[in-house]
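TL;DR need structure tokens for one chain.
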Amino acid sequence: QLQLVESGGGLVRPGGSLRLSCAASGGTLDYYDIGWFRQAPGKEREGLSCISRSGGSTNYADSVKGRFTISRDNAKNTVYLQMDSLKPEDTAVYYCAARLTIFPSMCVMASGTYNYWGQGTQVTVSS
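>> reply
TL;DR here they are.
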């Protein structure tokens, strides 16, 4: 069974950067879209970005567009989320998730369609 492990979270000052990693084991990510989500205390889970299984298509939520960049390295079975210009409102637990798909070049950020989830990594943006 596919397992996902996020890493790279931590404490960063406003305006700073972090790169989150999502490493997969127990299977290859070649057949999965990958999405990044976050959940802040008292708020609903929010879809941030997704990348198609081919890597050829990406989508971003308006809240992170232009600041976050998703990428994948299928050879390393890993997906990344580069987060720049971080704001205090980006503080949350960040999760990656995998969605098995037959379509190589499209992805969606509907959390209910994702089959496998990581345990999450905390990102705190504070001065």
